Amino acid sequence: MSQSTATASQQAIHTSLQGDEAHAERINNLTSAEPAFLDRATGLHLFRDMTLGRRFEDKCAEMYYRGKMFGFVHLYNGQEAVSSGVIGAMKQKHDWFCSTYRDHVHALSAGVPAREVMSELFGKETGCSKGRGGSMHLFSKEHHLLGGYAFIGEGIPVALGSAFTSRYKRDALGDANSDAVTAAFFGDGTCNNGQFFECLNMAQLWKLPIIFVVENNKWAIGMAHDRATSDPEIWRKADAFGMKGEEVDGMNVLAVRGAAQRALKRARAGEGPTLIECLTYRFRGHSLADPDELRAEQEKDFWAKRDPLKSLEDDLIQKKLITDKELRTIEKEIDSEVNDAVEFALNAGEPDPSELTRYIWAED
Length: 364
Known about the structure:
Blueprint: H1 3-28, H2 40-65, H3 80-90, E1 96-98, H4 104-109, H5 114-121, H6 155-171, E2 182-187, H7 194-205, E3 210-216, E4 219-220, E5 223-224, H8 225-228, E6 244-249, H9 253-268, E7 274-279, H10 297-304, H11 308-318, H12 324-347
Parallel strand pairs: 1-2, 2-3, 3-7, 6-7
Antiparallel strand pairs: 4-5
């Protein structure tokens, strides 16, 4: 490494740590409303869902480095509280979800079976996108997952269209039961793109039932968030459109769930969209091809102590809702489910070459 490159890297790490302190200060000074209520049933669901997300991603890393999985693979480790918190609060049969290229755990939270997600990552016919999508393009009509998208911001207009459909069915077609809400997930780097602002404007103008969920993990690939935007507090950008905005501790699943519940209530009541900024952190590099050398070890250690899965576990045990033995049993069950998904995917059939162009054009 040249001296100039080394100096640039050191400067990036210094800036990263400064941004890290600001990020932590924001979390410590949050003034958002109360977190969601925690009972045994809710705790069991959240712990199971978050554990599935974590163990599934760990297995993906193993398969990738063993040469069993190919292409770009972006893991979600550390951000599980956002997926479980939002989708877990929304998960009704008629609600919809729109993801990003970091979409495996969103799919699992939405109910897509682990076998189907893993099969898709292996490019098999049994995948949720029939082996055509791979890691970044998971889709399931059955589970109302509108897709993962390789380009940042690409999914936000799709989610907007879904929310518009819900409102149109109710107001124009007279379907009083049309109260579906759509959640659009995206990262902090997306919030400097035109689609973000255009869709916020339209959503507020027409009071569409959509929740814009910003997963602010501090890094847009290798660009620290505080270096890329004039106002790092993304939730405040809702003010420009007269929209409700809220920041929340994205490492606390109950805080995220509470914010999602408030946004859902507003959306179903016809009060329009909400922008929720979840302050979170990814524990791995941008993708499995990323050596992750820009982020300082001090930063990683700081956020590892805020592990959302460990925090929920501590909360459940302290409140005597679940025993440690029960949690360990759940982990073993999840490990078996993930291992089963891998075996299923490895033994599944390849897509039929004769159907190469299927699903590209509309069929009669």
